[in-house]
Amino acid sequence: MRILVISDIHANLTAFEAVLKDAQGEWDYVWCLGDVVGYGPDPNECVDLLCTLPHLCLAGNHDWAALGRLDIRTFNNDARKAVTWTAETLRPDNIEYLAALPTTFVLGPYTLAHGSPREPVWEYILDPLIAALNFPHFETPYCLVGHTHTPVIFEMVNEQGDTESFPPVYRQSRQLNGHRQIINPGSVGQPRDSNPDAAYALLNVEQNTWEHRRVPYDIAEVQERMRRVDMPERLILRLEHGW
Ligand code: ZN
């Protein structure tokens, strides 16, 4: 089974379509690690497109925010404005879809969570120390997470639990070696690693290999749609800078 691993689409249909086109014919099933909506101009279109694919999907914090499940006073002004617009724009059937999403999945040797195995919806695994603290919170060799919008592999390198981070090497298949790892494919719709290209990954379950990828998409087209619905300018500009 070949898995297309995506996360943090954030209602960016153009980026989502670019990923599907780039990976066409190379996967059998989609694992989506949450935040399908929030920030971008196409929440219904992204849920609709995801639902046409054979897939599983986790709940992210922005999905929950759009459902009114979170106190959005913890979000900054711009994010709050986007959440409110998203909540008002989502169709009832798509709200129902998002409301039914689970927060974790365990599939063979892989545990899936949006943020972290310890705090699936909330925690950001930003560095090796936070990764090390999360290894006791899942039982499989590997955990796949999103949420930080930064592609990376954290690997436990010895029995003492020392953990190192490895930056992505794009379009090169990496053999997962049995060492415990927490792996992030990056964000489809709002990358934050100073690279504006959409990020995703391919996982081959039989061969236990992982491949990070990036693909450019028409950012101006998305920004234009965001301006039309009066999204905050900061959210519009960040797409072209990748932060
Ligand atoms: Zn996100």
Kindly, what is the distance between the CA atoms of the first and last residues, rounded to a whole number of angstroms? Answer: 33 Å
Number of separate strands: 12
The chain-level mean pLDDT equals 97
Estimated share of beta-strand residues: 15-25%
Radius of gyration from the alpha-carbon trace, in angstroms: 17 Å
What's the name of the CATH homologous superfamily of the domain at 2-103 and 169-176 and 184-241? Metallo-dependent phosphatases
State the strand order across the main sheet: 3-2-1-11-12-9
Bound molecule kinds, no repeats: zinc ion
- Describe the biggest sheet? 6 strands, mixed
Give the name of the CATH architecture of the domain at 2-103 and 169-176 and 184-241.
Answer: 4-Layer Sandwich
**Count of individual helical segments:** 8
Question: Helicity level, as a percent range?
Answer: 25-40%
CATH uppermost class of the domain at 2-103 and 169-176 and 184-241 = Alpha Beta
Query: What structural category arises from helix and sheet content?
Result: alpha/beta
The unreliable regions are none
